[in-house]
Amino acid sequence: MQNENRLLEFIKHFKKNKSAVLGFFIALLLVTFALFSPLIAPHLPNIQDLSARLIPPFWEEGGSIEHLLGTDDFGRDLFSRIVYGARISIMVGTISVSISLFFGLTMGVFAGYYGKWIDAIIMRIVDIMLSIPAILLAIVIVSILGPSLYNAMIAIGIVGIPTYARIVRGSVLAEKEKEYVIASRVNGSNNLRLMFKVILPNCTTPIIVQATMGFASAVLEAAGLSFLGLGAQPPMPEWGAMLADSLQFITTAPWMIFYPGLAIFLTVLGFNLIGDGLMDVLDPKLKAKA
Amino acid sequence: MMLEVNHLKTYFYSENGINKAVNDVSFSLKEGETLCIVGESGSGKSITSLSIMGLVDKPGVIEGGEIFLEGVNLLKMSEKELRGIRGSHVAMIFQEPMTSLNPTYTVGFQLDEVIKLHQPTLNKQERYSKVIEALELVGMPNAPEKYNEYPFKLSGGQRQRVMIAMAMACEPKLLIADEPTTALDVTIQAQVLELMNKLKREKGTSILFITHDLGVVAQMADHVVVMYKGVVVESASAKELFSDPRHPYTKALLGSIPTPGHAKRKSRLETVDESVNYLSFPKEIR
Amino acid sequence: MSESIFEIKNLTKAYTIKKGLFAKPLSIKAVNGISFNVARGEILSIVGESGCGKSTTAKMLLNIEEPTSGSILFEGKDIATFTAAELKEYRKKVQIIFQDPYSSLNPRWNVGTIISEPLRLNTNMSDKDILDRVYSLMKKVGLNEEWYWRYPHQFSGGQRQRIGIARALALNPEVIVCDEPVSALDVSIQAQVLNLLLDLQQEFNLTYIFISHDLGVVEHISDRIIVMYFGDIVEQKSVEELFEHPEHSYTQTLLKAIPKIAF
Predict the structure, then answer these.
(1) Looking at CB atoms within 10 Å, which of A107, B275, C43, C249 has the fewest?
(2) What is the pLDDT of residues A145-183, one digit of tens each?
(3) How many other C-beta atoms can be found within 10 angstroms of the C-beta atom of residue A156?
(4) How far is A208 from chain C (nearest CA, A)?
């Protein structure tokens, strides 16, 4: 069927973009870690073993194969914590992007489609949200709701709304004047159908790209909030929180800070690379020439 | 001979293979004449004109042939030499006048720039009168007033006039016009065409006119080249072509236009039959 | 003359433009009190240059734009007074074909979805019946049935226009408003589409309201012609009359401006 051909064509173009493929494999690794953490991780993330405190990675002097990346100050296995941490990162990314997407999409579609005063009100709200620095807004929201990972996700989700609202509004504005929309209207489509069934599918490209990039920044922001003590609370194996815990051991046990940091870096990099790749592949202008 | 194109080949390379957009095209344009290249989309007519101007971009490559402008082979020239030729000997007008004009500068400023570039010895006052003269030549109403207008304030026809004024300001020997009237209303089109014919008469400019509209061809051409799928299928004087079209494709093309006064109303129009390989017929070069 | 399917009386559309917050709103009349009738089964062309109001008129006939004043009577009844049920019926009877074959088809929908949309929204036909109907429509306009699952970007301009025509035919309309249906096409493709439109008109006894700027096409296809100029109708008569005895000076200018192929 034709849909399959489209998918194949998409894969063909995507494969040509080397950095996007790299990003894809990083993301795949992350998802594998998250799905199969009990199978991959040799230990449970929160099991303390005070006899095995601050063991370095196995290739260093004093390291053992039992703790691949060493242990922390409570004797917890660092590799296992990072593997379980992937679950948290994926959850944070998915939930906060979903929150931003849901509200941003709805606001953007209504603003773009109806225009006039509805547009004015929605976009002023968006402007106000954009005028406050994102991390500050998140801190405010978390301090109101109280520090926890779930509140951090809600905060990050809310912070992301304006970006999506703007992108969606822009594409809806461009699409709604096209003749196929008039054609559907002549045939009796109501406003909701026009907005969500006729117009919105044609605005997906920038949304998908933004969602991928947004996933990366959500992971980063969650780590940031957790680092500040406003997100995940101990003993949760959240990467940002792990960084915060390891600060005092920065000279004695540098692996404790290095590997969670690397995990954050790779995740953010991976999703940004995918986002870039998607932008190249999905850009209809480039595609129309092919 | 003003312009002579011999065996021009411009190919486009992509993963799906080679697209021979211009496939061995030859024609020549005599001094002071108008040559029309006519064809439908995909015929390669626009790529031909871009090739002549040296404006073919990747993935397009000029694979072979010669383009002589007054006996000098353009394809053997460096980019720098070509730039000197563009604008001074050759000028080009495009279909969409709005995108070809810079929206942030006034009409006068842009014309002034062109003249400054080509006649650096003139002072400001002399250039100003040159600009006004150029605008008046193309029949722009209130030329001094229009000097300070921005392009978006002008109508489509006026913008195209500015483009022609710009093209003519450097007094080119050859004017290449790629569908210059396609975006215009018929009454404006008639004025622009008349203007170009006037310039040809008064300044002896040779014109290479690219169009899909056979009506416009009839109005403008001394000689016509019919292109189809990158190939010249028929080349003849305008008179011969319209009174005695010989190639089956030309015949089909002529038969498909409903012409006022000519067509039998509501009768079936002739069409270009996709199942026919028109390239299998002998080319008609007269 | 045969029965009128449309009676348009004093139709006006004015747009107000406000330049700046405190400036007086400026009223621009796109259509300036025009009146005409459309007879059942005729091809009536509305010609004029850009900005003459022909497209606005078409939009008002389709009930997409609301007239500022004046009335449009369809089969004797003012469309402004239609109930929801009558409006639905009206939609089935009056359809449209657009100018731009690229923007008039939803790029994310396949051909089947595009052609079946009017059927799904306006009839209670079963999926099986809809499929059969779409296949027969595709055949009627010269599209291969196998292309049902393809997407618009896989077609040429002419084929896309055929898809648009099939969509317009889906509900067995009585009137089709053709808004510059061939002006974006190559001449040879234009000829094919004109042939198709004429065939369909014969077969289904359709009424066309044909909006165009191309007098060659208009002369070929029309029974009657309305010439518009800056929102006004300057002349309306039969095609023979208009081309042989143009009265208004604008019509004369327009006719003179057409490039003629004559040697």
Answers:
(1) B275
(2) 888 888 899 999 999 999 999 999 999 999 988 889 988
(3) 32
(4) 15
State both tokens at B42.
Answer: 């995909």
Rounded CA-CA distance B88/A250 in Å is: 70
Reported as a single tens digit per residue, the pLDDT across B63-115 is: 889 999 888 888 888 888 887 777 678 888 887 655 677 888 888 888 888 88
- H helix or E strand, kind and range, residue C39: strand C26-39
CB C57 within 8 A of CB C46: yes
Q: Calculate the alpha carbon distances from A156 to A42, A96, A206 in Å.
A: 32, 6, 20
Question: Residue C96, SS3?
Answer: strand
C79 DSSP 8-state letter? G
Is residue B263 over pLDDT 60? no
> Residues in chain A, how many?
290
Tally A–C CB contacts below 8 A: 59
Asked if the interface predicted TM-score (ipTM) of this complex is over 0.90, the answer is: no
pLDDT band at B170 (very low <50, low <70, confident <90, very high): confident
Average pLDDT of every residue of chain A: 87
B173-184 pLDDT, tens digit each: 888 988 888 777
List of domains in chain A? 16-289 (1.10.3720.10)
B253 in contact with chain C, both atoms CB, cutoff 8 A: yes
**DSSP for residue B279:** G
Interchain contact, C91 vs A184, CB within 8 Å:
no
Angle between helices A78-114 and A239-246 (to 10 degrees): 130
For residue A123, give the H/E element and its range: helix A116-131
